[in-house]
Amino acid sequence: MPNTQHAIELLRFNTCGSVDDGKSTLIGRLLYDSKSLMEDQVEALEKSADITGGGQINLANLTDGLRAEREQGITIDVAYRYFATPKRKFIVADTPGHVQYTRNMVTGASTANLSIVLVDARQGVIEQTRRHTFIAAMLGIPHLVIAINKMDLVAWSEERFQEIRDEIEDFLPKLDVFRDVKFIPISALNGDNVVDVSKHTPWYPGPTLLAHLETVHIASDWNLNAFRFPVQWVNRPNNPTDQALHDFRGLSGQIASGIVRKGQQVAVLPGCIKTTIKDIWTYDGSLAEAFCPQSVTICLEHDIDISRGDMIVGLEQLPGMSSELHARICWMSIRSLQAGKKYLLKYGAQTVQAVVTKVEGRINMDTLDLEAGPTEFRANDIGVIRLKTAKPIIYDGYTTNRLTGSFIMIEQGTNATVAAGMLFPPTEAVKPEYTDFAI
Amino acid sequence: MSSYHLDHLQYLETEAIHIMREVAGEFERPALLFSGGKDSICLLRLAEKAFRPADIPMPFLNVETGHEFPELISFRDSRAKELGAKLIVRTVDEAIAKGHAMPAPGEVSRNKLQIPVLLGAIEEFQFDCAIGGARRDEEKARAKERFFSFRDSFGQWDPKAQRPEIWNLYNARVNPGENMRVFPLSNWTEMDVWQYIRREHLAVPTIYFSHERDCFRRGGQWLPVPPPHTDSTKPDPYAGARPKPSEPIKKMVVRVRTIADMISTGMIESPADSVDDIIGEVAAARVTERGTRADDKASEAAMEDRKKAGYF
Hints:
By secondary structure, chain A is α+β, with helices and mostly antiparallel strands. Helix content of chain A is 16%, strand content 34%. The N and C termini of chain A lie far apart (56 Å).
């Protein structure tokens, strides 16, 4: 039996835009036209069309999975969809457009390689467009697509397309940098330039949306600089039947960035202990080297006291270590954030207590400027704060490392996740006075 | 393509291993739901990859409806033994006998009765977390579920108040009495599961492969004829699941695509007798996996309603 599966890449993307920009319709269209829908799904769609849609198939019903969503015709929560073409596999996060659900957009977009921001060609750029583009940039999503939708309702006007494009390009320089930005004129409802090339846009020389998703270069999206390994779990076999495992002491985790090799010198933080990688253990055998985002179990040359939450790092490009933090956050709770309040902060595999020492400013979504003055954040506000943690944390700037530069804030008592935080780069790297380990 | 590169299965694998280790790191008393079905078979391999050479640091838990395929039960038991894991089984029958579960009059399927049994087991063993093999591509209410899915002290899922899940930072905190369901395979599709089974050379129960079986037609599906009722001192556990005189029995060449119990699993006609054949079949399939599940066909919101009440 031939093994026909060659290595296929996985692209994760999310769709965002304001209510009724046609996000769910677009995903429905991608699934429908790429023949990723099954007969019973089409049947269920047609059944609901007879009942609620006056006979017309409603592609949005494919992703709106909760009863309240179907009843109200809106998307409440992030819905994930999966489809594949012969070129790539895709994970799609359909993220809601209502302003009160910005937190779900952050959820859906935080793991994405690419964001699609939908713009209604009739309405042009609105606050939501700026907000979603800003969040995508802030989250460090490498690739951006601006899909200008409902082009059929503006008579496929190239001028209108260019006008919206100019307006967006005007504010892009204010944002964190995307690796690439693509503008595509589409009609999700009719399928133009989604999977099939539109007859109506001879003036648009670029690829269809799917062709772009299939070819955009994502191989370098993972960070292979500066080795970082947050220890998740200490692996110590209790009663090993294998004698060789009696002294086994492994540190299990997922490589957050960089490459690690057997024999390499590393530092263990926060203890500032220098040691050497003895083995990179995996179920499938030892590795000579491992890289981000592999999950491995590292054995060190010396028997050091290490526990969950510690970090093993390469000796070059050391991270910061501080209990005074400076970060951008997206606030997600209906109870407002105020200076002086205490929260739990989870980063890497560690949870610590933290107090908000200062609210520095809030982003004005119309101008995208940081405005000083507010003393609290309400739900969906994005701004800059200072925090003090109960013990120093080891971190990088979010712009250099999405995994070691991020945190979530948890409200004590309710355990609600109330904020997503992105750290500014440390003002200085940790200056370790190494204990060279000697037994 | 650079050598520092993961293909899609390796990516899904490392994501799932990370999640399993978070469970081990964050919870006091986790359990792993293992039915012997294909998804939970993948979970066990991921648990081996996450925790070896140490023991898998959690027991396996299974809820039996009493209508299981015997092949599945024996596979489940032997696999748990092979891995040296503790297997806890709780049954709907026991729960009915103790009065913890009450069958609705006339309802043949015991699918919903699994809910109180599962919640009872969670309470009995004080589990604060249960890892399950559910996938988001199975069903549209599942498509909205988080990796770490919070349940209140009644075991309920509130889809409107889910915790946002950002990057790979999972908020695993629960208060006493509350618990978490964790789904490491959330991002896997049916195809990914079979490709992983092939790559890892995993054994699966024989009912996934083509075999001859007596079936009958009901509700648009081919249902298996249950084993004969031999113990006349007890009521027939399959009463209601047996073909009526108006439902002729047909010998067919079939297999299962997804397994619930015998009452809610439609058989599909298929000659596929190897993992490669199954992968070919999945690639060419024109109906979803859950299209063969009678329990999901009840209504458009059937899964959502069961999940809110505490279903897997």
